[in-house]
Amino acid sequence: MTDQAAEQRSGQPAEQPAERPAGPVLSARGLHVDFGVRGGRRARAVDGVDLDLAPGEILALAGESGCGKTTLARAMLGLVKPSAGTLSYAGAPMATSGAGLKAYRRAVQLVLQDPTGALNPRHTVYEAVAEGLRIHGITDNERDRVAQALSRCGLRPAERFFLAYPHELSGGQRQRVVIAGALVLEPKVIIADEPVASLDASVRGEILALLLRLRDEFGLAALVVTHDLGLAWSIADRLAVMYLGRIVESGPTEEVLSAPRHPYTRALVSVLPDSPVPGPMVLSGEPPDATSIPAGCRFHPRCPALASGASEAAGVAPSCLRTPLPVLGAEQDRHHVACHLATATPPPVVTMERDE
């Protein structure tokens, strides 16, 4: 619905989205996150990432389990301390302690995967949504703020839900309460970890439509962590694909999914309906081990292009085995790929229509 249509329907001027500042609202440069594991080894969960999130943008961070996407999201929330690299919010270095970190966590909010686990079963909906206000010492107009947040998330009339407990709500309603708990603080960014993974298929579309509406009406930026490329195709402006701690392909969602260039992305896309990749691709070999990053391209032990001889035919097989690839840049309007074969061959020309 356009702003003009909304104005005609309600009889009131349509609310205009907030003006979006220039430059990224959230940035990572050279980000590394290491963890110690048994035996004195180090697991490189995030192994060099450059990433920008623009105001009002939905960026999907995709990859299989263990690729580092959740750790990257937690680092960008300030919940995990980076081993190296920098994080910036609105062009300034992210605070790591005190009042600065508290203010940052008000501006950048988390939406968890499981709404049942995220909500205290002994707290009413009102208490759940008001909790953030109380933590941050916001005491003025608490009731109005809670009601507005619930209404924005489609729980209307909001007062009807104030005294309800989580077990009295449907799964979709619980997830809306979780999102309302983030929105009540009027953040600039939401980081959502698998926001619809635990919901029924009939409810998933409603929550995704809600995220899109919040982006369009309030200029809210969102980093959505997912293993589901179908979800990314539905809502994301841009897609970043991670493998073994590093982004291996990124760019506008339609470009990446219509013409995937990295063999790993091609394998992920191959199982989508109407995929531009002919036939499902099954990856061989063991899942990646973050304590032992392979030499050369980190994907080469499982790479179908290397196994089939395509890399050798293109003359890049030695590079795949021995030459490390650089960290991908963070430019938002470019389709980047970290692959010796992809950079040595022209990109495929494929079209893939998005359902409206």
From TrEMBL:
<dbReference type="GO" id="GO:0005524">
    <property type="term" value="F:ATP binding"/>
</dbReference>
<dbReference type="Pfam" id="PF00005">
    <property type="entry name" value="ABC_tran"/>
</dbReference>
<keyword id="KW-0813">Transport</keyword>
<feature type="region of interest" description="Disordered">
    <location>
        <begin position="1"/>
        <end position="27"/>
    </location>
</feature>
<feature type="domain" description="ABC transporter">
    <location>
        <begin position="31"/>
        <end position="269"/>
    </location>
</feature>
<protein>
    <submittedName>
        <fullName>Peptide/nickel transport system ATP-binding protein</fullName>
    </submittedName>
</protein>
<dbReference type="GO" id="GO:0015833">
    <property type="term" value="P:peptide transport"/>
</dbReference>
<comment type="similarity">
    <text>Belongs to the ABC transporter superfamily.</text>
</comment>
<dbReference type="InterPro" id="IPR013563">
    <property type="entry name" value="Oligopep_ABC_C"/>
</dbReference>
<dbReference type="InterPro" id="IPR017871">
    <property type="entry name" value="ABC_transporter-like_CS"/>
</dbReference>
<dbReference type="GO" id="GO:0055085">
    <property type="term" value="P:transmembrane transport"/>
</dbReference>
<dbReference type="InterPro" id="IPR027417">
    <property type="entry name" value="P-loop_NTPase"/>
</dbReference>
<feature type="compositionally biased region" description="Polar residues">
    <location>
        <begin position="1"/>
        <end position="13"/>
    </location>
</feature>
<keyword id="KW-0547">Nucleotide-binding</keyword>
<dbReference type="InterPro" id="IPR003593">
    <property type="entry name" value="AAA+_ATPase"/>
</dbReference>
<dbReference type="Pfam" id="PF08352">
    <property type="entry name" value="oligo_HPY"/>
</dbReference>
<keyword id="KW-0067">ATP-binding</keyword>
<dbReference type="InterPro" id="IPR003439">
    <property type="entry name" value="ABC_transporter-like_ATP-bd"/>
</dbReference>
<dbReference type="InterPro" id="IPR050319">
    <property type="entry name" value="ABC_transp_ATP-bind"/>
</dbReference>
<dbReference type="GO" id="GO:0016887">
    <property type="term" value="F:ATP hydrolysis activity"/>
</dbReference>
